[in-house]
What does this fold into?
Amino acid sequence: MLVLMFLCTIIQLLRVSVLEKNVFLVEIWAVVRIFRDYSEISLKVDDSKGVMDFEKIFGRCGVVHVEVGSGKGAFLLSEAKEKTGEDFLGIEWARRYYRYAVDRIGRWGLKNVRLVRADVADFIARHIGDNSVDCFHIYFPDPWPKKRHHKRRFFSVSNLQQMIRCLKCGGAIQISTDYAEYFDQIKQIVSSESRLDETEFVRPLGAEDGELVGTNYERKYIKDGRDIYTIAAKKIT
Ligand SMILES: C[S@@+](CC[C@H](N)C(=O)[O-])C[C@H]1O[C@@H](n2cnc3c(N)ncnc32)[C@H](O)[C@@H]1O
It folds into this structure.
């Protein structure tokens, strides 16, 4: 099966333009790399367990970050490596990215990161408790550009209500996107919520010169010459 997937990828690679080849090589690496499953990192969604007990999961009571759509885990890795006294949960739906991130975090031996493969809106609504999160990180959520697909966007009034419920007082939401129209919608939703105050966007520690966030997608979008928009808000009540 692996050999077949590899051959298909090579055939596709031969058909793409030179510009797209770099992106494709990364994809090939994601396909052929042998992923290890680190059971201590990858959490299973178990409905019977209900709301997550972060204290039990991380073995301590402290600052909890949740990343929405963590992709290949670049943010989780760079941030958790530096902030060893804080805890991080990444939620990702795509199996390939999820396994890539688990493997990556496992290889680094980080004890303060967990990943769960789930639909993020559903997971937050059903498995994250009230006043339990210090910061939600939403970096480059899928923009779903077609109007008829806008309802699939993660950033909506109802998902924001859920995140506010989960945030501790003083907790924050950090958002970035390369999609101007989605950004306007996000700003509008945030500003119409009286329990939030806009605050300064804090650049993650993995952001290098010329970057605001430092994730894989930001790097790709910067290469494509796209503008990056950020916004952050704090729960005040
Ligand atoms: C544009 S990528 C951004 C990834 C990463 N945050 C970054 O900046 O590199 C969006 C990510 O969200 C994930 N995603 C999309 N819909 C999701 C959902 N409903 N639940 C969980 N993850 C989702 C995608 O699989 C993808 O990894």
In short: DSSP finds nine helices and eight strands in the chain. Residues 69-71, 74, 91-94, 97, 119-120, 139-140, 142, 215-218 surround S-adenosylmethionine (CB under 6 Å). The longest strand covers residues 167-177. The domain at 42-235 is CATH 3.40.50.150 (Rossmann fold).
